[in-house]
Amino acid sequence: MQIMKNENKICFKKLTSESVELGILLAIVGGFLDAYTFVGRGGVFANAQTGNVVLMGIEAATGEWGKAVLHAVPVLAFVVGVIVAEMIKKPSMHMFIQDAERAVLILEIAVLFIVGLIPYTSPNIIVTVAISFVSAVQVSSFRKLVGSTYNTTMITGNLRSAIHEIYTAVTKKDRESALQAVRFSTINLSFLAGAISGGLLTSFIGAKAVWIAAIVLICSVIFFSADEHKSKNTDIGITGV
Q: Which residues, other chains included, contact 169 with Cβ-Cβ below 8 Å and sequence gap of 6+?
């Protein structure tokens, strides 16, 4: 009976972490943060590290070592974020952190709240590093969308997956591919919606606009809590059988 309870909890957590509903919320945050850093924090995309690596290479090639180092810092922050996310998921951490996914969301919320307190007069690198860290933690912790690999902080891979599924659905009359195409397209549109709202709100509100992203993440935590409540109710039903 206890084994059935544990398996049931794991099943619910997996369904939640891979759900389209959670993916929508996280994609909104991903788009929002990119727009936030671009509009209000120096015209950079802190979520994707490709640009930082390219700019670091260009600056190094032209002998601008100081600028190259500045572009390297967010990349290092991303590396640290990935390591932190993996550490949170380790079995040895279960004694302290029972729900890794929810812990990651709470960590993101805390960092974004602090970012909102940093004025525009502060060096943009501070915010860029913080957002890069948040991006790494999120992308390392939520990598599946109903069983398929996806990304909540950039859409290049999601766009490719959406087009692939559409092609497969049309050419092979595959219903599951059609469903996945809708799912990936929904994530891409959510990212776009986040970017639009992020750009507009940052222009009007300023530095504290990032708290809107934190509020969306709070909604994600509530989503996990609702799932946990559902899991407990199911356990009660199993116990009564």
A: 175, 177, 178, 181
Question: What are the tens digits of pLDDT across the range 184-206?
Answer: 999 999 999 999 999 999 999 99
Report, as an integer, the average pLDDT of 114-130. Answer: 93
64, with CB counted inside 10 A (0-12, 13-18, 19+), is: middle
5 pLDDT above the threshold of 70: no
What is 2-240's CATH number? Answer: 1.20.1250
| 101, two tokens | 């996914």
More confident position, 209 or 47: 209
The domain locations on the chain are 2-240
Instruction: Give the helix/strand (H/E) hosting 144.
Output: strand 144-145
Question: Longest Cα pair distance anywhere in the chain, in angstroms?
Answer: 72
Bridge partners of residue 145, in order along the sequence: 148
C-alpha triplet 8, 102, 81: angle, nearest 5°: 130
Q: Between vectors from CA 188 to CA 187 and to CA 193, what angle results, nearest 5°?
A: 95
| Other C-beta atoms lying within 10 Å of the C-beta of residue 1 | 8
The CA distances from residue 22 to 138, 141, 183, 206, in Å, are 12, 12, 12, 27
- Please say whether the beta carbons of 13 and 142 come within 8 A: no
